[in-house]
Amino acid sequence: MTLAPSIIERLTRARGDLRMGVPVVLTDGPQAALVVAVEALSAARLEALRGMGRPELAITARRAETLKTPAYDGDLVRLALSDDVGLDWLAAMADPADDLRVPMKGPFHSLRGGSASLHRAAIALAKSAHLLPAVLVLPVTDGAALAASGNLTLLALAEALPELDRASPLREVISARLPMAASQAGRLHVFRPEDGGEDHYAIEIGRPDRQHPVLARLHSACFTGDVLGSLKCDCGPQLRAALAQMGAEGAGVLLYLNQEGRGIGLANKMRAYSLQDQGFDTVQANHRLGFEDDERDFRLGAGMLRQMGFSAVRLLTNNPRKLAMLAANGLTVTERVALHVGQTEQNAAYLATKAAKSGHLL
Ligand SMILES: Nc1nc2c(ncn2[C@@H]2O[C@H](COP(=O)(O)OP(=O)(O)OP(=O)(O)O)[C@@H](O)[C@H]2O)c(=O)[nH]1
Ligand SMILES: [Zn+2]
């Protein structure tokens, strides 16, 4: 054991760096680049990067669709930065808030050929830090030396990509009795991922028999719905109805997964809501921001259930992806228990879009 941080620790540090606007050094074999998230970029850092070479802008193919620029790298686009563009232009490329008011941002100079692996990893890192998926990438010659001299976090893709792709193992930190309105016999378990990500919770009701399928729900955090009683979605009523059903049956387990906004974080979800106020639906809004419509990783829930000793579930959901992901990750789903509650005038279009575009069952 050395004192040097492991790859997992450096990845966690890199997410913090990106959120603070500090460059991170990525290497892929002989290639290296400094990367900075556009959302957190300062004028001084942009100036410094320009003094070192020609930065490139990487955005997702989803964002590029709206900007009407072709994606030569499949899931992403690399654009050369002309000398006259500043922070405002970069911010507008990253954030679609003003797209309708100012639709023309080009002409764009798309880069083709060569490898996009550093750009792709930088976008994945920005997403995992809950930042908009738009990054400046400055190719450099000796990444390791630059990282050492500038005290910057260094990540080699060969080490970092497998960690970014895998669901981080979780360990249970603590559990304690929690009497609730839905059931006196509640217990809250707190699980912590090894990668320094957010904690996730399991609410166990009664003492479900581990030998039988348990009534279960994977609930993704929705601050607006769960806490504020937002009428734009059905999350709050679904949360309470699931707990009530478990209370009535005397047993169940509800996983409360901190995957706010289908995995994009609350700030980006509010950006999506702002686009919804401009007339876009929930799926279009995610795409305009550069995200997929659902960025959640449900492997997490399967791991927590297995760790708690459950191998079969009766799952409260209308989302077929949750059923498929549990099954693919070693859980037996013996039954889907439909969960249709909380329909309002304000969320009718949202629920209809989820049924039409995301395959939610009615
Ligand atoms: N990006 C985005 N996220 C949203 C929006 N409305 C709600 N959410 C999030 O969507 C997620 C809904 O979670 P769930 O209720 O567990 O999942 P679901 O896919 O609807 O599936 P079931 O409720 O199990 O049928 C939460 O993370 C919310 O924060 C939206 O308009 N945009
Ligand atoms: Zn919600």
TrEMBL record:
Q: Which residues form the active site?
A: D294 (proton acceptor), R296 (nucleophile)
Q: Which residues bind Zn(2+)?
A: C222, C233, C235
Q: What EC designation does it have?
A: 3.5.4.25
Pathway membership of this protein?
Cofactor biosynthesis; riboflavin biosynthesis; 5-amino-6-(D-ribitylamino)uracil from GTP: step 1/4
Molecular function as annotated in GO: GTP binding; GTP cyclohydrolase II activity; zinc ion binding
GO biological process, alphabetically ordered: riboflavin biosynthetic process
Which EC class is this protein assigned?
A: hydrolase
Q: Which reaction does this chain catalyze?
A: GTP + 4 H2O = 2,5-diamino-6-hydroxy-4-(5-phosphoribosylamino)-pyrimidine + formate + 2 phosphate + 3 H(+)
Provide the binding site for GTP: R217, L218, H219, S220, A221, Q238, E260, G261, R262, T282, T317, K322
Q: Which cofactor does it need?
A: Zn(2+)
Residues forming the GTP cyclohydrolase II domain are 174-337
Record keywords = GTP-binding, Hydrolase, Metal-binding, Nucleotide-binding, Riboflavin biosynthesis, Zinc
Question: Which SUPFAM superfamilies does the UniProt entry name for this protein?
Answer: RibA-like (SSF142695)
* Cofactor stoichiometry and binding remark: Binds 1 zinc ion per subunit.
GO CC annotation: what is one?
cytosol
Q: InterPro entries annotated for this entry?
A: GTP_cyclohydro_II, RibA, RibA-like_sf
Protein family (similarity comment): Belongs to the GTP cyclohydrolase II family.
Function recorded in the entry: Catalyzes the conversion of GTP to 2,5-diamino-6-ribosylamino-4(3H)-pyrimidinone 5'-phosphate (DARP), formate and pyrophosphate.
Q: What is this protein called?
A: GTP cyclohydrolase-2
Q: Which gene encodes it?
A: ribA
